[in-house]
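Dear colleagues,

I hope this message finds you well. In preparation for our joint manuscript, I am sending the Niemann-Pick C1 N-terminal domain-containing protein (Adineta steineri) sequence together with its predicted structure, so that both groups work from identical material. I would be grateful if you could confirm receipt.
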Amino acid sequence: MQANMSQLYSNRQLIFSDDNNDKESISVIILETFDTSSSYGLYLWPCSPILAQFIWYNRNDFIGKNILEIGAGTSLPGLVAAKIGAQNVVLCDNPKIDQWLSLITETLKMNSMIADRIRIESLDWCDEKSIDTLIKKYFPSNIDIIIGSDIFFHKKDFETIIALLDKLFLNGNSSVKFIGTIERRSRSTMLKLNHLIGIRDSYNEIYLNGEPKPLPANDTYLLNEMCPHIATPNGISPDLCCDRKQLAEMQKFKYMLDNIIGRCPSCYYNLLRILCEMSCSPNQDQFIWPLETLNITRPNENEKVISDDKIRSEWALADYEDPDEEVDEQEENVKKLPSKPIETVHVVSKIRYFLSEKQAQDFIDSCWSVRINFQYAIDILCGSINRGCDVKKLFQYIGLKNTQSPMKIEFIFTNDTYYDQEFQRTFQPSNATMFACDQPVILPHVSRQKCTCM
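The corresponding structure tokens are as follows:
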């Protein structure tokens, strides 16, 4: 180690072996800093060796795979993955973190046997350009598993991190997965994380015999963004079958569409309309019917819990402050809302969607020539390659094979009324007209120029 480096870093050797087999083992040397003025990310937190141990015990699942570690810091999990036989490992962290590049460069020198299989990349998950550069270089074919230890640290960053993971999943192959560990510093941290990625936010609650209702005036802006084809004269919403929560869930998905097909207004707004009709149409029962339902528990969102977890002296830095214990000045002035009892909610987990075959074909035609990162966007939406997409494959992938959505959609294509023997009902798909690729998009709340079609 260089002299000037030794003043900043100390090294630690970690050995991984099976409980009853010391003969099969690996050792990894990592560097860490106790200079807290630089970054807490350059210190070995408890979640890192736990994730590394998981990789070791499940090494057969990582051998020969391409691994991406985000928020890598000391990079112990990624180094273990390389040691046990991962084909390639990409270590990423924020280039704004002082000393990270020098730390990881020195670390690779001390683990020289695996250095040729490790790549170092900059990734600022708040910077779209940084994210797009990484995706262009490694996705969809060069990453199999994304890993991250303790990346859910500051609650204010949770949504940004989830958005990053969503974007990586969307641009990855159909089997890419994320494996991570998180330190439970307080119950409030877990409540927020569950709120963002928990099961209940991805389903629609069932209201038996419910009637369409207008949205409150304060929510019409969200309707205008997500369903721009629905007119809201004087800011007044028509009767709808969706509420603010459902529109907010659609909004989380919309940013992914922005990056894939946003450059072609006709393709983009055609798909947005199909999704909006599914959630908001006041005539839902004419072309949608629930197939499967389940009961989920709704946690108490308003409960504020002060963690009684104590900082563990054996690993915590002397001046470390748990971000969950920091109190915002504005938060101090907010009156605590009365607690709501935990309740069981009946939700839809699978639906049947009767879609016009012509509408579906017109949609795929409007998207056929849209490219993203030298790949056709429709292939990404379809989970296929080399122009292998068609209407049935596309909507089957969106509805049933997409692992990112817990609610499944079974699409039935028809150009006329459809009598369903199972439900003994007649369904009538929407006859909404799709915009052609060479048409400008003119809607009540949006106006866009036509695509440049190939």
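For the figure legend, we might mention the following. The chain has two domains: 3-183, 216-295+344-448. The first strand starts at residue 9 and ends at 18.

With kind regards,
E.M.
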